[in-house]
Amino acid sequence: MILQVISPSSILIIPRRQVAPNSIYFHPQLSSSVKYSYSLPPKTNNFRQKNITCSANNPTVTTERSEDVVKEKSVSVVLLAGGKGKRMGASMPKQYLPLLGQPIALYSFYTFSRMPEVKEIVVVCDPSYQDIFEDAREKINVDLKFALPGKERQDSVYSGLQTIDLNSELVCVHDSARPLVTSSDVEKVLKDGLRVGASVLGVPAKATIKEGNSESFVVKTLDRKTLWEMQTPQVIKPELLKKGFELVNREGLEVTDDVSIVEHLKHPVYITEGSYTNIKVTTPDDLLLAERILNTASFVPA
Predict the structure, then answer these.
(1) pLDDT band for position 151 (50/70/90)?
(2) pTM for the structure as a whole
(3) Does residue 8 have a cis bond before it (omega within 30 degrees)?
(4) Mind listing the domains of the chain with CATH numbers?
């Protein structure tokens, strides 16, 4: 089976893996009385070896889980906070709306700041909103930098990339509108990114996905068992991301997410299974759902 990007929904096709035992799962159609829980997997030295290929016909890549450890202070986080969020219909960008009394963007900001692997956070935002993060500076123990957003997402990522520390081993790109990412999921995707070179959090698709034509007629129904919904963070080695941008800029390509840049280099991208609670807040309904998740006793964001 091969990886395939289905634009513009950022869904990849890849053999589906078993559900990770430390994932937190949430279904918006379930009643509020349902309890949600998770458990961490036991420590073990028995690792399984898997092979993956990408749509660029890259040679088989071994993805054996080794003893590789992401070093402390070796990761630069690029926090994308420059979007306008028109679908929310609010007077300010969605990432700055209050979520239980705190700006949405600060949830993941604090989660990353508490992780020992993180050296710095580069916030890509409009200067008029920098004070939100400046006011939080005294609460964090990582370097805080700022970069200007671009017209498109890839322009904002490129702006953040130009600002990171040159000695960073990994770049971790995250949408600030995803406030509920957990540190345990971030740790997993960082390790996979270090091992493979590029990794992305994702969850198996639950809805039936159909491919349509320009006239809105169904062309075919895709096999849900092979579909993944992409999330963030997306983790890439800096030198790989820079090479990808050189190619994308030279050929004038447009990409909808960060690992797509690497795919153009014919480099494999590994999908790290994440959690369904890692939602992107884009509509008022999403905001209500995020509040509901945070109010769930078993949910531990960090």
Answers:
(1) very high
(2) 0.78
(3) yes
(4) 75-201+230-298 (3.90.550.10)
